[in-house]
């Protein structure tokens, strides 16, 4: 709660909440109850990143908990269009995340339905990993695919973001930066948050 208040005061626009199930990724974090609890402490936009198998089973609970946007992994969805429709049916925003090894062209037939595309710049599962530079070219490729279709969803990048990598991805076309270690490991949280507003 204290940390959330700190980033809110520091000027963070959104709160990115990592949900891991110990199956889709080799790590376990929190579930809908904790999201509902932190909802009581913050008015920030809740950006819920689901790194879970069969996300459709828990989407209603995360909506109920107060999510403003839910992002699912393309790799975790057999029926991606159905899952995106489910999220949007609740009147909230829907995003799709791509692992570092997942190509951008797989979004071709779903791009028009999306409010956000998340390009993972680490393999999901842990904070504090090193930025994978291949993400930069991938963002450019994604921007091109979206531009060709006249689409303008948020382009989010998550993993190893700091002032240097953040600048590189923004120049490539990203407009939503997720940062964990860089912000919470900083002695001046406000300065760290503001340094990512390019
Ligand atoms: O989804 C994630 C990992 O799966 C995290 O959002 C991401 O790693 C942020 O942490 P850091 O900024 O420390 O890399
Ligand atoms: Fe994340």
From TrEMBL:
Give the required cofactors: a divalent metal cation; Zn(2+); Mn(2+); Fe(2+)
Binding of substrate, residues: 49, 125-128, 158-160, 180-181
Per UniProt, where does a divalent metal cation bind?
16, 18, 49, 158
- Which of the seven top EC classes does this enzyme belong to? isomerase
Which residues catalyse the reaction? 18 (proton acceptor), 158 (proton donor)
Pfam families per the UniProt record, alphabetical: Ribul_P_3_epim (PF00834)
The catalysed reaction is: D-ribulose 5-phosphate = D-xylulose 5-phosphate
Q: Which pathway, per its entry?
A: Carbohydrate degradation
Protein keywords: Carbohydrate metabolism, Cobalt, Isomerase, Manganese, Metal-binding, Signal, Zinc
- By its UniProt entry, which CDD domains does this protein fall under? RPE
Q: According to the UniProt entry, what is the EC number of this protein?
A: 5.1.3.1
Question: SUPFAM superfamilies annotated for this entry?
Answer: Ribulose-phoshate binding barrel
Gene Ontology biological-process annotations: pentose catabolic process; pentose-phosphate shunt
Q: Which family does it belong to?
A: Belongs to the ribulose-phosphate 3-epimerase family.
Its annotated function is as follows: Catalyzes the reversible epimerization of D-ribulose 5-phosphate to D-xylulose 5-phosphate.
Under NCBIfam families, the record lists: PRK05581.1-4 (NF004076), rpe (TIGR01163)
Q: Which HAMAP family match?
A: RPE
The name this protein goes by in its record: Ribulose-phosphate 3-epimerase
Species of origin:
Thermosyntropha lipolytica DSM 11003
């Amino acid at each position: 709660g204290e940390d959330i208040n700190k980033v809110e005061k520091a000027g963070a626009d959104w709160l990115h909440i990592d949900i891991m199930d110990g199956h889709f990724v080799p790590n376990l974090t929190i579930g809908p109850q904790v999201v509902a609890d932190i909802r009581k402490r913050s008015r920030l936009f809740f950006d819920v990143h689901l790194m879970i198998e069969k996300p459709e089973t828990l989407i209603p609970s995360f909506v109920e908990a107060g999510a403003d946007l839910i992002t699912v992994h393309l790799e975790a969805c057999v029926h991606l269009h159905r899952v995106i429709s489910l999220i949007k049916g609740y009147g909230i925003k829907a995003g799709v995340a791509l692992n570092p090894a997942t190509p951008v062209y797989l979004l071709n037939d779903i791009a028009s339905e999306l409010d956000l595309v998340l390009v993972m710049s680490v393999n999901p599962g842990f904070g504090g990993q090193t930025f994978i530079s291949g993400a930069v070219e991938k963002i450019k490729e994604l921007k091109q695919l979206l531009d060709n279709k006249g689409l303008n969803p948020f382009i989010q990048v998550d993993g190893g973001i700091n002032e240097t990598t953040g600048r590189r991805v923004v120049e490539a076309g990203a407009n939503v930066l997720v940062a964990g270690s860089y912000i919470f490991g900083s002695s001046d949280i406000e300065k760290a948050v503001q340094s990512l507003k390019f």
